[in-house]
Amino acid sequence: MLYLFIALIASIIGALSGLGGGVIIKPILDAIGHYDITTINLLSSFTVLSMAVASTMRHYQAKTVFDQSMTSLLVIGSIVGAMLGDSLFTKALEYASYPQQVKQLQNVLLLALLAIVLLYINYFNKKYQFHIKNRAFILLIGLSLGFISTLLGIGGGPINIMALTLFFALTAKDASINSLILILFSQASKIFNVFLNHDLLSYDLSMLLYMIPGGIIGGLLGSKLHHRLSSHTVKIAFNLVLFFTMLTTLYNIYLS
User: Could you tell me which of 167, 191, 213, 231 has the fewest CB atoms within 10 Å of its CB?
Assistant: First the structure.
């Protein structure tokens, strides 16, 4: 039931704010310490994918409007980036003396990126915003987002939000919708890559029986709340979750 609760709460918040849930799930599972780093990444990815599918379907039914041309280019880039990120993660585990070293590096990088996102969203987003239209650059942004999110095993929500705000001047609500779509395709790409290159039976994924339903229910509830809340409220939720995740990540670094 603990894993169902974690998946449900993370997915509600992730669908509501565009964070995706992985940025909450992975640090919490790291802190609990029941599974190794690869299994945690897989549990997080499957849960986030289920949340993203449910949430995107809800937005589709509600006829949510977004820039399809820009989002399509970002998605194509994120799919390629996710495959590259997963390949690098696998190589890092192969060459690291201890898997714990890779986990610690993930947490340090995640903490640094979350701090940058928090500072930008709250203090610099009005001052530094662009309106990128170059298709090649949009593809490159998508590739970078997919690569970073998969490498860190978080789904990429916070980084997606910052990039969408910085490069495309989107509001918190608009950025959150686009972020969920990016998360959907990047995580699907990562899982497809896992199916091709890994033996899933060698990992203990039994908790997915609880986490996937939590992801689906959370995605539906979170996307429903998204339509009812203002952009300002979504931003507050984003900040609170980001701050909590930074504290959890800091705790994981201290433990390691």
Answer: 231
Q: Quote the pTM value.
A: 0.86
CB atoms within 10 A of CB 228: 8
Instruction: Tell me the angle at which helices 22-32 and 231-255 cross, rounded to the nearest 10 degrees.
Output: 30
Residue 51 has a CB neighbour count (10 Å cut-off) of: 37
- The Cα 47–Cα 5 span in angstroms is 12
For residues 115 and 132, give the distance between their C-alpha atoms in angstroms, rounded to a whole number: 24
Can you tell me the distance from the alpha carbon of 206 to that of 63, in angstroms, rounded to the nearest whole number? 35
> Which of 50, 26, 22, 45 is CA-nearest to residue 36?
26
Identify which of 121, 106, 110, 100 has the alpha carbon closest to the alpha carbon of residue 172: 121
Confirm if 110 and 250 have CB atoms less than 8 A apart: no
Tell me what pLDDT residue 20 has. Answer: 77
Write down the pLDDT at residue 64.
79
